[in-house]
Design a protein that fits this description.
single chain, alpha+beta, three-stranded antiparallel beta sheet, 6 strands, 31% helix, globular
């Protein structure tokens, strides 16, 4: 017996920029019911890796998202991250655009694992006056 079920996976454990289609197959073999999960395909969308800050040389937060204006707005309103709310991390200091979400996620992990000085150097290089870049990313 086979039951094939395809659906886009959208929940709190998956970034909405990554539409992951799973195929579930229920297969009965010798009285055992096996569930086989097959990744059917991945639809990639534009992604952003970003660094937020609360003040110059202050607390930093590194994240990845598919919708940078929405995510920064959430940080500014104190929703979506207990850390950024607790430490008032509400200014966008740096961001980079990726066409492949998997590459963006790897870069985010690399940044998070890197030193604080490396993060500050990225901000200083592209945003030497530590301005909040939020207005720059809003649709015109």
């Amino acid at each position: 017996y086979r039951l094939i079920f395809n659906r886009p996976r959208r929940d709190a454990f998956f970034d909405p920029s990554l539409e992951l289609y799973l195929m579930f197959q229920l297969v009965a073999i010798g009285g055992l019911l096996l569930i086989i999960i097959i990744i059917g395909g991945i639809v990639l969308k534009q992604s952003f890796v970003y660094i937020m800050f609360n003040q110059r040389n202050g607390t930093l937060y590194v994240g990845v998202t598919s919708n940078l204006p929405r995510r920064v707005y959430e940080h500014k309103k104190g929703i979506g991250s207990k850390f950024t709310k607790k430490y008032s991390v509400d200014k966008l200091g740096y961001y980079e655009i990726f066409s492949d979400v998997l590459v963006a996620i790897e870069y985010e992990k690399k940044l998070k694992a890197g030193s604080r000085q490396a993060k500050i150097a990225l901000i200083e290089e592209k945003n030497p006056h530590w301005q909040d870049l939020y207005e720059d990313i809003l649709p015109k």
